[in-house]
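Hi C.,

You asked whether I'd gotten around to modeling the 323-residue construct. I have! Everything is below, sequence then structure, no commentary in between.
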Amino acid sequence: MSYFGWSWNILRKMGCICTRESIDINNTKYYIRDIIDGGGFSSIYLVEQIDSRKKFVIKKIICHGLEDEKLALQEVEYHKMLSHSNILPCLDHSLSNKNTNSALNSISILHMLLPFYNRGTIDKDLKIREKIPLPMKSIDLLKIFVEICDGIKIFHNFRPTPLAHRDIKTSNILLSSDGSPVIMDLGSTSPAIVFIKNNAEAQKLQDYASTRCTITYRAPELFNVEIDATIDQRTDIWSLGCLLYALCFYKSPFDYIHEKGDSVALAVVSGRILFPDNSPYPESIHNLILALMKINPEERPFIDEVRSKANNILFELNNSVSC
């Protein structure tokens, strides 16, 4: 969800500060200032803490039963486990029951308190740049990409069980006030390594990917999960390739396919990645994207190598500029 793209001053000018409804999280009250995003079972609110007047974001998740509740609380746990400057922290949370007339389903509500980033997401920044157009400088985009890799390393190198984010995309990367990227939305995060032993397990993972992993950033092995396959954190490496492409050219290579109404799945499994003829970026960046987006996941590098490759290109570009 892209729910941090609003400017507080813009909201005031638009007259959106119009409600005194509040949310309590562990005896601290937050006034709702705007509903920024809302879906089937979750909503995102821009809020203000009553005493400090500081702005935050609250993610509200409605849980229909114990399984939903377990998944929602797991998202909170991942925020706690994955502490890093390039990963969004969960500042506080609360779980409460909601009265329901249904005798079959118990309903609970999870509230997650998150920082508010006035600059919004990389996706928002790229949309502004595309209109001008104003491509990022090679050095600037590689600095951002290396920091994103630093955050993803925390997922992939987690012990005892490596984790995968599973939904890396430009709208899930915030920009802090100093321009540093911050990875958000851990709702799709799960153990990275999955062994597929039968049709039921293959279908389960495929269904999970279709609902949790954005189609234009989804790795090819998640479109048609095979029996006896081993899925690992290199699904994220493919998504990082799509993200790096978007940093260069405003969108994932498959966003253009999706917008035309053509089959993204067919485009992904074809493995054909095209670069604009007038690309302002060096071949080294093109080659890095291609290395991350190998159809066979066994041919993709792991995150430490990805970061090293990106940092080496950045070092070379910095040296060429200084010379």
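If it helps when you're writing up: The two ends are 42 Å apart (CA to CA).

Thanks,
B.
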